[in-house]
Amino acid sequence: VGVPLISGMGGSSSTGELLPSRLPLPRPYTLPFRVPPVLRPTSTDGAADRYEIVQRTAVAEILPGVRTEIWGYNGIFPGPTIVSTSGRRTIVTHRNRLPAPVVVHLHGGRTPPEHDGYPTDLVYPEGASGHHMAGAGHTAMSGDVSMGRRDYVYPLRQPAATLWYHDHRMDFTGPGVWRGLAGFHIVHDRHELSLGLPGGDRDMPIAIMDRSFAEDGGLRYPSLDPTLTHTPGVRSPYGPGVLGDVILVNGVPWPLAPVPAVRHRLRLLNASNARRYRLVLDPPPPGGNAFVQVGTDGGLLSRPIPHDALEMAPAQRFDVVVDFGRYRPGQYVTVRNEWGDGTTADVMRFHVTARADDRSRVPDVLTAAVPLREKDAVVTRRFEFRHDTVRGMPGWTINGRAFSPTDSIMSPKLGTTEIWRLLSDFHHPIHVHLSHFQVLSRGLGGPGPYDHGPKDTVDLRPGEQMAVLVRFDDYAGRYVMHCHNLEHEDMGMMATFTTVR
Ligand code: C2O
Ligand code: CU
Question: If you measure from the C-alpha of residue 110 to the centroid of ligand 2, how many angstroms do you get, rounded to a whole number?
């Protein structure tokens, strides 16, 4: 393989460096759980649903009694949830009232290239002065720059899935998301709605992220913190990835959620910059198999898969059904992170209230989608993800190259299947735009327990090799693939590819 085999590197300490908070933290499981508000369309007609989002700074109370400045979609963190119907055009107008340029990417969306949020397709702040534009000169060569606002058009010709949207500005995605630029975008389709899975209040989006707080209540992050200076050439500004000691669920530290003793669908999203989680229910339900997985990044699995634990790398989604009817009313059920320590071992808690009517079900067959076949592959490509020197500084590369917005490294042909072999020296959640992966193998074996279904992000582990199938359809143009450890992405671990007809 050419990289050392390191085993047992599941723990959180291996994916980044912990930045401790400098404020007293609340006791876990005291603050109420909430879900982000669903955004209402500004108009809807035969052709499209239109939405408008203003990106702005706001002061949020995340820790009780503490004022924290965030960057929020409509001033909230996480942003509002957009709910779309598969195949119905969704147009989102983003206005930028932040003090910096932004880029919006719909993660998991099958989106034409001009709307996908290429990292240099910057949206400058409203009323940006000539001073701002001076810095735009070099990116204007490679990016499609807009002033103040931009309409993102999403055809959403794809099956039901839990997608999310977030900032994607070249070199600044880590701090942008850390400050709050992330939200859910859920796609439903008729087939999924006919399955009888738990719906309404019993379908809960759950975004998990770690954060750290400074003395003044602000979000603590290396490049935002004047007390953390780095020595050029000695170490990178972000190290291997940034980890916080506060676990937020939908923006609330370690919340408590009352739930009736019935089945719930939990749409789990790991929206953390670098942290990986291994989630379990404590106590486990009698007989085990706490989580019945029904879907993943790109939509439904063909059949449900029961799990005792869920391992989630950054950007991954696990759509699971938990039957709280297996617990006694009055019981507390805690979601714990077995890869955390101290405060990061706690995630959230459910309080099982009373029995209630439950007509939901989990059918044995979820979708009849036809898998890709290895024998159809026409190209095999190899990608090595490594720690490296980038412009004289420690950084991260793909096949020895750091991201450049003017170089495309490959031109996959639309409608053909490819095999990608992925190799790494560290934990890298590898993400591809426009399409998704189907995992063929991990190490010497087949797909791991968490590799099933359409993945747009795979959990590549130190010293391990993975093989995945990928096939691009519909849209020709410029896209990126990258590591979704956002500090790695910002430090070079991203590449442009161009799909061609
Ligand atoms: Cu979630 Cu290219 O990103
Ligand atoms: Cu990485």
Answer: 23
